[in-house]
Amino acid sequence: MPPNIRLLAVESGDLLKYETVLKEIERYGNAVLGIRVDSFPVESISSARARRIYDWLCSVGREEMAPAVRTERVRLFLHQLAHNKADLCAQLDDALRRAGFEVARPAVSDSGAEERRVEQERARRREFERQREGLLTRFDQMATSADRQRRGYELQTLLADLLALYEVRPTKSFTRNDGAEQIDGAFDYKGWFYLVECRWRQTPADGRDLDGLLGQVNRSGRQTMGLFLSMEGWTQNVVPVLKQNPDKTIVLVDGMDLRTVLSGELTLPALLDAKVSRLNLAGEPFLSAVEILREQERTPGRAAGRG
């Protein structure tokens, strides 16, 4: 009986949807599987990354090739997307076996060691999702709060907790320069320090609101940038003024960006990486989460597969 490639495609997509991005799926699909990929729409799969993994695996499932070659390529493709994390690769190998692929079990002295590792990873992912959903609930409660001043302070705590969830080291509000300068918060990400300014007011932020953060960044070391979180966005002049500034050091985040991450549609690292990349390469201080998700959908591999 041939392997159940659709079962594998569903299970592996669930395991990997938070571990990878669409461009990475395309890169490894082309490099490892080396086939033409087509679309296999499945309404029950909501994640764009899980859908694309489903497309690649269903496409390789219909290709004529020796069973051993197919197994080797599919396993390598999945392990690459898992970044060769031992626990996650063990779960993927279990999924391969359940789908009917012949994958040897690792020789371990303790027969229950693999099961314990797999369960620990599942427990870690369940805890992550539990905390993320808790942050989303807090956010929605804050959005309906009548105490606008309090929710502004709570927003700083929420952002710090979100950073900690993704193992990004946050720093709570502090003062410097003998107490003359108040910093709402900061965090360390990929070797850069980000000073954070949070605003949750009824009106959009304007240029004067950003002047303070710009000054704080300019008075910091060279390895420092600024992240301005304004829940209601900003006035029309803010982005053009920032684009004219020769020091491209401010990344803009709005309420929709934050909620997209809290809802699990986009990971925090994916949001930050895309925004910083657009700032550095195109000089654009703002790239919305909606645009990031749209760009992930428009992948070179999908276009080539239909060509």
In angstroms, what separates the terminal alpha carbons? Answer: 33 Å
Strand content: 5-15%
Main beta sheet strand tally, sense and closure: 5 strands, mixed
Helix content: 55-70%
Low-confidence stretches: 300-307
Helix-and-strand structural type = alpha/beta
Order of helices and strands: HHHHHHHEEEEEHEHEHHHH
Shape: elongated
Structure description:
It is a single chain. With 307 residues, this protein is an alpha/beta fold. Helix content is 56%, strand content 11%. It has a 5-stranded mixed sheet with strand order 1-4-5-6-7, with helices on both faces. Strands 2-3 form a two-stranded antiparallel ribbon. The longest helix has 31 residues, at 113-143.
Indicate the topology:
Layout: H1 5-16, H2 22-33, H3 48-61, H4 67-81, H5 86-98, H6 113-143, H7 148-165, E1 169-171, E2 174-176, E3 181-183, E4 185-189, E5 192-199, H8 207-218, E6 224-230, H9 238-244, E7 250-254, H10 255-262, H11 268-282, H12 289-297, H13 300-306
Parallel strand pairs: 5-6, 6-7
Antiparallel strand pairs: 1-4, 2-3, 4-5
Short précis:
By secondary structure, the protein is of the alpha/beta class. The protein contains 13 helices and seven strands. A five-stranded mixed sheet has the order 1-4-5-6-7, with helices on both faces. A two-stranded antiparallel sheet has the order 2-3.
Core attributes:
single chain; 307 residues; alpha/beta; 5-stranded mixed β-sheet; two-stranded antiparallel ribbon; 13 helices; 7 strands; disordered C terminus
